[in-house]
Design goal:
With about 80 residues, this protein is mainly alpha-helical. Helices cover about 35% and strands about 0% of the residues.
C-alpha cells in the first residue's frame, strides 16, 4: 500500500492497493501544494523539488559512486574485446 511518511495510519496496518484511496491521497497532496503556493508558504520551485522522486534528499552530502555498467568511463576506449 502506498502511504506518505506523515500518514496518520499505523505502519503495522497492511492491505491491498486501493486505487481510490491512492487517487484521494494524490489529490490531497495536490490541494496542499496549491494552498502552500497561494499562501506563500512555498514557491513553485520548492514545491517542484519536494515532489521529485528524490527531491527531499540533501544532495550536498551525497555522492553517487556507481550508476551502472561502464560508470566513470568515457567513450569506448576502456572496453575490452
Amino acid at each position: 500500500m502506498c502511504r506518505m511518511a506523515d500518514d496518520p495510519k499505523r505502519e503495522s496496518e497492511s492491505g491491498r492497493f486501493d486505487p481510490k484511496e491512492h487517487a484521494a491521497m494524490k489529490q490531497a497532496l495536490r490541494d496542499r501544494d496549491r494552498e502552500d503556493l497561494r499562501l506563500g508558504r512555498a514557491t513553485a520551485a520548492e514545491i517542484h523539488k519536494r515532489n521529485l522522486f528524490l527531491g527531499q534528499l540533501d544532495m550536498s552530502r551525497a555522492r553517487i559512486v556507481d550508476y551502472g555498467p561502464r560508470s566513470g568511463t568515457k567513450g569506448t576506449k576502456h572496453l575490452k574485446k
